[in-house]
Design goal:
The complex is a heterodimer of chains A (314) and B (241).
Chain A (H helix, E strand, L loop, with lengths): L2 H22 L2 H26 L8 H17 L4 H23 L4 H21 L1 H4 L5 E2 L6 E2 L2 E2 L3 H24 L1 H11 L1 H6 L4 H27 L1 E2 L7 H13 L6 H19 L3 H15 L3 H9 L6
Antiparallel strand pairs in A: 1-4, 2-3
Helix pairs in contact in A: 1-7, 2-7, 2-10, 2-11, 2-12, 3-4, 3-5, 3-10, 4-10, 7-10, 8-10, 11-12, 11-14, 12-13, 12-14
Chain B lengths: L2 E12 L2 E12 L3 E5 L6 H9 L6 E6 L2 E2 L5 H7 L1 E4 L11 H13 L3 H15 L14 H14 L4 E5 L7 H14 L4 E5 L3 H7 L2 E6 L2 E6 L1 H6 L1 H8 L6
Helix pairs in contact in B: 3-4, 3-5, 4-5
Classes of the chains: A mainly alpha (314), B alpha/beta (241).
């Protein structure tokens, strides 16, 4: 099989497997996997900035929340339909990513981490400040009527699963396509050696800005979908741990691999879920597993697969 | 022959230190020019200002009739300048072919076949064809220098600035490098910063000598070779001593 065929077989195979699982999973795991797929979209968005472009942001929760509130506020207050609300969420995340990118990309390295962290905290506090509309920590519960997309009730478990899978597939194949494009290769070049990329004639700032906007928009799509599919929009999703989660998922799954964010999200979700069954100190088990994985597979699950068996993995 | 690159009163001060002082420099199209000078003479600072890595304190850089002093490096590269680093700066974790393809792609864009062909051609010219699948970081130092040159070639620049390209190369690699540069002379203008005098004497049409940030002498290799001032600068004797 050619490299291209192999890639499509692997990633298409994953989507097909998840589609089959829709019919065989017991209810509990059915809901979990739907959640994991939406969160994996968030991780894939984060991976575009961190894994492929080398931009370590500590503030992606603001993009997730921008998508979520950009969708939720018009749906809740104006009664906007699910489709239009989702588009509004995308637009809000893209706009925020553009504005934050223009400012934050004037810095690099540690300063970039701090600036994105601060912007994200500002976004979180803004949500609390406008409590009249956002209802602060309490959040907004979306009515069933506002969660109907093209006649399909997204609160129904199967519809929710299919919608999550659809979004996941779009994000997965978009990433796969992007990293094969000349522009995607330039992002990797910037990650590897920014000065060299500049001196090959590439406008590094513009490429990084495009990466942040795409990354923020994909994160926002995940946030908007999360709100629509699970019916809740809350300020806790804008808190700092929601900026750390995608970093962990991507590190565990393999930064700079297309499939890694999904593997990392799935792994961590079930790690916490299973260890919570054993002990109330479940974060201890999760933490230990993370330390072990970092020691023995520093490039994450996807990175380790690429290193050992499949050098072609995109 | 028309002038491809010139500088007027180009200066760079780092705090109290003047690294480059009011240099007027003209490079005609099609020439191989060597830039030499003792350590600390300001050679790398000077070429860094040409390509836009370092902003000058004063003065102007004109490329192909256009004042490029205010342009960022990537815009100058887009106009046809290329620069290979003194300290090897390849994409170590990417394949050799991908390093060169990145250099070719800015010019050729989405035309995959053309990029592949330009990559193969550039690698062939520097003799790295058989290593195209290796990671750039796994190459020997000398081969990484040649990869830098291949990345320069793949850009098809109008002006190729080579910062100490033969540093760390073996004698046979230097011989191959000299043949390569001679072959290039018909296609592009070359500015060569070089320590190896044998390479300079053999390749350069004209030599410019920098000393303490100023142009000390300019002439044919033979003239420079015979110049008492140049010898004094290199040997540390004469007026300043």
């Amino acid at each position: 099989m050619t490299g291209r065929g192999r890639e499509i077989a692997l990633h298409g195979g994953l989507v097909a497997l998840l589609a089959v699982l829709a019919f065989v999973l017991p209810a509990y795991h059915h809901g979990n996997v739907a959640r994991v797929m939406v969160l994996a979209v968030y991780a894939m968005g984060y991976n575009l900035a961190f894994g492929y472009t080398g931009l370590l942001s500590l503030g992606h929760a603001m993009f997730f929340a921008a998508g979520m509130y950009g969708m939720g506020l018009p749906a809740y207050h104006l009664g906007l339909g699910a489709g239009l609300s989702f588009v509004a969420g995308l637009a809000a995340a893209a706009g925020l990513a553009l504005a934050v990118g223009v400012l934050a990309l004037r810095t690099a390295g540690v300063a970039f981490m701090i600036v994105t962290l601060m912007f994200s905290q500002a976004a979180y506090l803004t949500i609390l400040l406008f409590g009249t509309y956002t209802r602060g920590d309490e959040g907004l519960v979306l009515t069933r009527a506002s969660r109907v997309l093209a006649g399909v009730d997204l609160s129904d478990p199967m519809a929710r699963y299919v919608a999550a899978l659809g979004l996941f597939a779009v994000a997965l194949f978009f990433t796969l396509w992007l990293v094969r494009q000349p522009e995607g290769r330039v992002l990797v070049a910037i990650r590897e050696n920014e000065e060299r990329a500049e001196l090959l004639g590439y406008n590094v700032f513009r490429h990084k800005l495009a990466a942040i906007v795409l990354s923020g928009t994909m994160s926002g799509a995940a946030g908007a979908a999360y709100g629509l599919l699970f019916g809740y929009v809350g300020a806790s999703f804008a808190e700092v741990q929601y900026s750390i989660f995608p970093l962990l998922w991507v590190l565990l799954g393999g930064a700079g691999t297309v499939i890694g964010p999904f593997l990392g999200t799935l792994f961590m979700f079930y790690l916490i879920d299973l260890s919570a069954d054993i002990t109330s100190a479940y974060m201890l088990i999760a933490g230990l597993a993370l330390v072990l994985l970092t020691l023995f597979a520093p490039q994450g699950l996807g990175g380790e697969i690429r290193r050992r068996w499949a050098g072609w993995l995109p | 022959m028309s002038t491809l690159l010139s500088t007027r009163a180009l200066s760079k001060r780092f705090g109290g230190l003047t690294a480059v002082h009011e240099v007027d420099f003209d490079l005609p199209e099609g020439e191989i020019r060597a830039l030499i000078g003792p350590n600390g003479a300001g050679k790398t600072t000077f070429v860094s200002m040409l390509i836009g890595r370092v902003a000058p304190s004063a003065g102007a850089v004109v490329f192909d009739g256009q004042d490029v002093t205010g342009l960022p490096a990537h815009s100058r590269v887009a106009l046809g300048m290329a620069y290979t680093f003194q300290i090897t700066s390849v994409f170590a974790r990417l394949a050799v072919a991908e390093n060169v393809a990145l250099a070719a792609r800015r010019r050729l864009g989405r035309d995959r076949a053309a990029v592949r062909e330009a990559t193969a051609r550039a690698l062939d010219r520097v003799g790295l064809s058989d290593r195209s699948g290796a990671l750039a970081g796994d190459l020997s130092y000398g081969h990484q220098r040649l990869l830098e040159v291949a990345m320069g070639l793949a850009q098809r620049p109008r002006l190729l600035i080579l910062d100490e390209p033969t540093q760390g190369l073996s004698d046979s690699e230097i011989a191959a490098f000299k043949a390569l540069i001679r072959g290039l002379a018909a296609e592009t203008t070359i500015l060569l910063i070089e320590h190896n005098m044998a390479v300079v004497m053999e390749l350069a049409d004209t030599v410019t000598v920098l000393n303490f940030g100023e142009v000390l002498a300019e002439g044919t290799p033979a003239e420079i070779h015979a110049s008492a001032a140049v010898q004094a600068a290199y040997l540390g004797t004469g007026a300043d001593a």
